[in-house]
Amino acid sequence: MSLTTLQRCLKSFPWLSHGSIRGSTFKVPSQRQHKSPLISTRTFSSTSSRFNWLAPKRGHNEKNRKGRPRMRTGGSTKGTTVVWGDYGLRMRDHDRRIAAKQLQIAADAIKMRLRGQRYRLYTRVCANIGVYTSGNEVRMGKGKGSFDYWAARVAVSRILFELKGDLHEQIVRDAFRLAGNKLPGLYEFVRKGDPPVMGITKVEAGTTLEEMQRPRIKLPMDVTAGRIPATTPP
């Protein structure tokens, strides 16, 4: 008896569905149930999922403007000192836009140099700016172009990487030197506790934050004119 015929009999004689005929019990075979594929879901947790610092979560739905790195002119020194680690890598020449691929290569260079060591690497920047390019020999006025890669706007005197661990300082210096060679621009090695930087001026001994934030005094005309070099004395 086929499976389909047996199911029709059960519909016609509902008393057979109890599985007993003259004191004997049996199991009614059923059709194979196709289980839905397992969906990789994340269980509830108070911590956030792993953050990808080389691409934003929102994607490239809207096109970003080219823009420029933000230059803090109100006296802020945010992002110029080491916070979590013991050593850091800081940009010191000029603000620029760094591609996510370049940041990844620099991070890999640090990991390769410190392979086998016990340390923790912190990233202080994230690539959240989309860069759009057009093809070769495309006339002007044909749109912004298609998405090319993610990049990060890094201001001057900004910390890019921090490192914490039981390592010798010379080993960390060498690792950051290799990372700086992979990145565009000039970088410097900083330690935890080094003075912050406002713009390109270090707030250290002899230079206070209040002194740099005070308004400039407008000098009289005769004083400012006397500063101009001349070939003959007045």
The residue fraction in helices comes out at 10-25%
Could you tell me the radius of gyration in angstroms? 33 Å
Described by the principal axes of the CA atoms, the overall outline is elongated
- Please trace the helix and strand order, writing H or E for each element: HEEEEHEEEEHEEEHH
Jot down its keywords:
234 residues, alpha+beta, 5 helices, 11 strands, 21% strand
Please provide a written account of the structure.
- The protein is α+β, with helices and mostly antiparallel strands and 234 residues long.
- The termini are far apart.
- The protein is elongated.
- The longest helix is centred in the middle third of the chain and has 14 residues, at 100-113.
- It contains 5 helices and 11 strands.
Topology:
Blueprint: H1 3-12, E1 20-21, E2 24-25, E3 87-91, E4 96-99, H2 100-113, E5 119-123, E6 129-133, E7 146-154, E8 159-165, H3 169-182, E9 187-191, E10 197-198, E11 201-202, H4 209-213, H5 221-226
Antiparallel strand pairs: 1-2, 3-8, 3-9, 4-7, 5-8, 6-7, 10-11
Helix pairs in contact: 2-3
Could you give a quick summary of the protein structure above?
The protein has 234 residues and is of the alpha+beta class. The chain has helices spanning 3-12, 100-113, 169-182, 209-213, 221-226, and strands spanning 20-21, 24-25, 87-91, 96-99, 119-123, 129-133, 146-154, 159-165, 187-191, 197-198, 201-202.
